Amino acid sequence: MKARLPSSPFISLAATPDVRQAILTRRTFRTFERRPVPADLRTRVLDAASWAPSAEDADCVRFVVIDDPVLKKRLFALTRESKDISNHWEALFRSSGLRGYVQDWTHTPLCIAVCIDPAARPRHIHDNWSHRLAGAAASQNLALAARYHGLAMVMYTHFSQEKLKQLLDVPFEWEVDGVMGIGFPDLGRINPRVLEASLVRLALGELVSSERYGDPAPKELTEERQPPERRAPVAVPDLMTAMGELVETTRFTDAPVPSEHVFEILRAGQWAPSAGNFQPIRYVVLRERERLAALDALARESAAVSAHWFPRYRQGAIDHPQWADVPAAVALIADPTKGGPHIHGEATHVIGGGLAAQNMRLMAHALGLGTSVITHWIEEKVKVLIECPRDWDLVGVMPVGTPAESPARQRRQVAEVVFQDLFGRRFTP
Ligand SMILES: Cc1cc2nc3c(=O)[nH]c(=O)nc-3n(C[C@H](O)[C@H](O)[C@H](O)COP(=O)(O)O)c2cc1C
Fold first, then answer.
1. Separation of 397 CA from ligand 1 center, angstroms?
2. Could you tell me the distance, in angstroms and rounded to a whole number, from the CA of residue 182 to the centre of ligand 1?
3. What is the pTM of this model?
4. Domains in the chain, start-ordered, CATH in brackets?
5. What is the DSSP string of 121-187?
6. CB of 27 closer than 6 A to ligand 1?
7. From atom 28 of ligand 1, which residue's Cα is the shortest distance away?
8. pLDDT at position 226, please?
9. Mean pLDDT of 84-107
10. What is the pLDDT of residues 209-250, one digit of tens each?
11. Which residue has the CA at smallest separation from atom 19 of ligand 1?
């Protein structure tokens, strides 16, 4: 007998959602029906993953589809072993606890390892997270595309990294963000307590600051319009259409961005997943001209420092918008104490930022706006400007406005970025 899903505006399995619906109703599911994911849907979700943006279109993400039953069994054994290692320090993962389960890959229809290459990042100061952000954008595209097609996904990162890389023959220099488990959710076997826990989000009023971290944001940015002003939400495009069209925007017109659109973009970030649902990301909205002008000066200073090592900045390369003129900007900052407490969970707070950023990009695009994630900064100077705590990480700053350009993007073919069972082995769709 199928269990009923709890009634919530944040859970739905209805197929072909628009961007807003997809972002708000994507939930993690961990138990799947035994039926396989049909070949055409496998290709579509992989396609969506390959469309995800990366800083300067750096080619840093590869996917390994794991179908071999022997490999899946070994992955399952590794997952158990990894959890047992974490149990040495973290009672949270004991089998009696809410997070005590171990993903059974032998009964997970579609298993995709997301691999990232630190060497392929764009090369400027503070580019150390760029490959993580690219991997996160690809993972979020996978999750949203799965949601679109009536499937669901769990992002599973709890692995002994070296053993996972060895198992999949991933090059020594690469990293694996995790294995994504995808299938048709088995509603009869979901744990309602786990599903309910995943519906908890901090209020936007707690997540969003104005100009400086800790300074409350005006209600118009953090609360949905209430009656009598309340209008039907602006119609937004189909998710897969928006995903296919998405580009990074750095040139904007001077048209102002309505507060309700900023609210929708922030809410899209709020509903991104995070390891353990610990919600490590905070958003600082910048709209004061003076602060944006200071950010602009920092952008120039950052490029001047990068120019010391990278000739293209000496030749005038510009990967920043004109911050002084952008209608609004949102800085994403990540609290490392709110990452996953499991082994190799150290980057999960920043990955959470990459997942939120991808939701925000898609929502901005759906509203006719554009954005991008700018990571090229003297990090500590931006942190001072926005009063970010010293030991937090700056994920990036996202300009928001009406695009003044529609740059073409290179599209990679699935066959170029997807491997079968082992890294480097030709994919057989
Ligand atoms: C970076 C990251 C790592 C995660 N790692 C795991 C994991 O190792 N095991 C697991 O069961 N779930 C993992 N999750 C899923 C989260 O527990 C889930 O996203 C969170 O509880 C929020 O639920 P939601 O995705 O339904 O919004 C991970 C999620 C993220 C974003």
1. 24
2. 13
3. 0.97
4. 19-196+410-420 (3.40.109.10), 202-401 (3.40.109.10)
5. S--STT-TTHHHHHHHHHHHHHHHHHHHTT-EEEEE--S-HHHHHHHTT--TT-EEEEEEEEE-B-G
6. yes
7. 275
8. 66
9. 85
10. 999 999 999 999 999 876 656 667 899 999 999 999 999 999
11. 273
